[in-house]
Amino acid sequence: MILPVASVVTNKTICEFDLLKLSLEQYHDCSWVISCDEAAYEKYNSIKNVECLKLIETDDCDHNVASQDQKDNWMKVMMTKFDAVEHLISNFGHALFLDSDMVFVNPIEDKILEIFNNENIDACICQHMTNDWQNEAQHGLYNGGMFHVKNNKFISEWKSLSKQYKEYNFYFEQQPLEFVQRNFVSLNLPINYNIGWWRFNRPSTQNRLNLLQVKDDKIFFGNKPAINFHVHTLREIGYQNFGQFLVDKLCDLIEGTTNQKYKNILEVIKG
Prior knowledge:
By secondary structure, the protein is α/β, with parallel strands linked by helices. It has a single domain (2-195), classed as Alpha-Beta Complex (Spore Coat Polysaccharide Biosynthesis Protein SpsA, Chain A). The chain has 9 helices and 13 strands. It has helices at 14-25, 38-44, 68-92, 110-116, 133-139, 152-163, 176-180, 244-255, 260-270, and strands at residues 2-9, 29-36, 50-54, 95-98, 102-104, 123-127, 142-149, 186-188, 195-196, 212-215, 218-221, 224-225, 228-230. The protein has a 7-stranded mixed β-sheet with strand order 3-2-1-4-7-6-8, with helices on both faces. It has a 3-stranded mixed β-sheet with strand order 5-13-9. Strand 1, helix 1 and strand 2 (29-36) form a beta-alpha-beta unit. The longest helix has 25 residues, at 68-92. The two termini are 32 Å apart.
C-alpha cells in the first residue's frame, strides 16, 4: 500500500522534514506532495517519490512571535497545506497531512490504515489532549499538524473558513478545524498518535512521561505502541524549545534499545 502524504517544507524546516521522511519510510512506502519554497524545491524536486508545489515565497514566519508580519507570513505558509492535500486527494483519493517536525517510531497500525480507506469516514483528526480547556479554547481543540482526509468538501470548507481567521478571531488555520469537523463524519486518532510535547507540560499531565517506555525493543505509550512524536528536534526556532524535554526523553528511550530503525533516527538527531 502506498501512503499518500502531504507536508509543508521550507528552507528552515528541511532538516526536520528529512528526519520525518526517513522515520516514516522505515515503515511505509510513501508518495509525498510538499508545498515548498525555492530551497526545498531545489532539494526535493528530483527525488522520485516527492512532488513539489513551489507555493511559498518566504519562510520568515512564526506563530509564536510578536511580529505581525511574521504571523501573517506564517498563515500564508500554512494555507499552502490545503493545496498539497487537495493535490494528493485528486491523485489518490485520500491524503495524510503531517507537519515536518515529526518522528515516527512505529508503523501506523493496520486498523488505522483500514479506517483511512473507509469511504464512510471523511477525516481522521487529533485532539490536543492537554486537559487544559482554557488553553484549547484559545488555540483549538484539535491539532492541525496531523490529519487524514478523503472528502474534498471537508478541505474546501476548512480552507474557506481559515481565510476568515481574523474576522472570526480564530487561531490561524488550526481553530477553524474545530468548527468544520462538526459537519462531517470524523474520527479522533487515539492518544498514541501525534504525541506532542504539549500533552506533558502541565502539572496534571507531566506524569504521562512515565507512560513512555521500551517494550520488546520498541517504544510504547502505556500499553499502546507510540506511533509518532510531534516536537522540534533540529530546527533553530529563535526562542526556547518548550518541547526539548520530550526530545531528551525520546533520545533516552532510543539509547535503551538495540532497534536499528531507532538508531538511524538517533544518528540524525545527535548529528
